[in-house]
Amino acid sequence: MSYQLTSATGIIEAVIDDNCGMKKFLSVANTLARECKAKFLSKEDNCDTIDWFFTYKGHNLKLHYNIYNGVSISNSNHKDNKAVAELASMLEKKFF
Questions:
Q1: CATH number, domain at 32?
Q2: Domains in the chain: how many in total?
């Protein structure tokens, strides 16, 4: 089940699944691309962390995966919080 973390600046991170593997990350990415029409712009892959940056309805967001923390969606501007919450709600219904 997803939950949200809020930074001191008001930016949220929606944790989609905190105990999952790469397969779930790829499923979330495919769902974002196909069903939500998200457009992936760039990707940063490291040994234990992956960040894929994308746009959704004009909002710049990040799909994040870490082998210790699972899959999450975040933003860099508090104006994008509604988009993050919207995607998290949709993904929660789809995957849980």
A1: 3.30.160
A2: 1
